[in-house]
Structure formats: structure tokens, C-alpha cells
Amino acid sequence: TSxxxxxxxEEEKSQMVGTVFSSVASNYDVMNDVMSxxxxxxxxxxxxxxxxxxxxxxxxxxAGGTGDVSFKIxxxxxxxxxxxxxxxxxxxxxxxxxxxxxxINPNMLNVGKRRALERGLRENKSxxxxxxxAEALRFEDDTMDGYTIAFGIRNVTHIxxxxxxxxxxxxxxxxxxxxxxxxxxxxxxxxxxxxYSFSVIPAIGELVAGDRDSYQYLVESIRRFxxxxxxxxxxxxxxxxxxxxYYVARQVQxxxxxxxx
Length: 261
Ligand code: SAM
Known about the structure:
7 strands, S-adenosyl-L-methionine, membrane, alpha/beta, mitochondrion inner membrane, two-stranded antiparallel sheet, disordered N terminus
């Protein structure tokens, strides 16, 4: 592809990603905390606060895995509802709220459904679990108010297909937010980070999850992901990243609102 995953053959990559996430599913959440020192929670909070969810919204969380981002979105919407005075109106809107957790891997979704059960959300009509491929979504055009993909886009085979699908399902004015890890550029911190990710993370993977190879893949996939390449955007008069650049290019042709942060 044009996004730098040439070394791995396409079918090999999707097969490998399938194996990795089937294998890590049961330990995924605890490993996220261990590997990031809990930081992933703060990053996801930031993502959801930037999304600015609202009662009645239709939202698609792609590569949603065990549901972390979707739980946070639903929690935010429920808090808005609790604060709202017009309970009746808000109740109607809650009926309409739909948050779709879409992931290609049934094992990850099953862990997510179990977590939903533990949180008393299993019967919640607002949360819908969907097995599906980010590159070929089974949702209608122009149906979503929001689209998030957290730590997912580097695992797909064709990033451009994922972006095109996101664009297709979003309504005009709908919001696309992508949270991803990339490389550290600051000297010294970069060396520390490299040591941590290439030596410490696979060792933790072996120790905690008994699976060194999958964690080796996760570290590798971050290294292969495009760095925070910056380009100057005339439209926004600011430096933006590669993925935002794609969206801005589309925005020039169409007025779908893309927020850059
Ligand atoms: N978003 C979740 C989070 O932040 O905790 C899970 C992220 S996890 C690192 C990456 C997820 O992407 C896995 O659950 C994996 O199954 C999913 N995935 C990989 N390729 C996919 C694809 N083509 N379509 C949908 N999901 C995919």
C-alpha cells in the first residue's frame, strides 16, 4: 500500500492481525494498563471529550475491540442526560442513541460483551456489537454522526479503504476521530521509548500474557506506522498530519467538517 506496510504481504498481514488479537483478547485490557501505565485511559478520555457526544447520536467505533471507547461515549451521554432538566425529552433521545462497536475479531467482541454485562449494559439498547471489517463496512451511506478508530488503523491492510469507508458512512458535518500511537521524535526520550517498546514490552507480554510474539507484533506495527509527518494546510493555516491531510483534501471538495487536534 502507499502507507508503508509493503514488507508484509497483504494476506499475511490480515491473517497475522487475526491471530494476534484472538490470542491477546483475554488479557487485552490488563495488558493495555500494564504497557501504557494506564495512560491509554487518559488518551481515550481525550478522544471522547473531543468527540463531544450527545444524546440521540449515531456513532460508529471501528476496531472497537473490548468496547473501551464505546463505554466512555455512552457514559458521557448518560451524564449529559442526568444533568438535563428535560428528562422526558432526553429519555426519548436516549432511545434513539446508537453506539455501534464494530470489530473484525469475535474474540475481542466477546470480551467486550462480557464487560458490558459486568457493567449492567448488556441489555442496553444503545450499545450494538457488530462483527465487521473496517475496509468494507455494512452500514448505509450518510448515517453516522461520529466515527472513532482507536489504536486500530495501524492494524488494517488498506488504510485508504478504511478512510474512504469512514467518509462514506459519516453524515455531512459528521466527525472522524482517529487515535493512534506513533514514533517518539524527542532525542533521549526516543532512545528510552525504543528500549521500552522493543525490549520491555515483549518481555511483559511473555510474563503477563505468556505471548511474546503478539506483543512483538504490536510494537512492530507502531514502528511501521507513518511517523507524525507534518504538512502545512492552506485551508486551516496550520500543520496537520498525514491522515488529516487526506480528510482536508476531501473537505475541499465537500464540506464535511473535520476537526484537527
Ligand atoms: N479500540 C480498542 C481499544 O482502543 O482498546 C481496541 C484496539 S486493538 C489494539 C485493535 C483492534 O483492531 C483489534 O480488536 C482488532 O481485532 C481490530 N481490527 C484489526 N483489523 C481490523 C479490521 N480490518 N476491521 C475492524 N477491526 C479490525
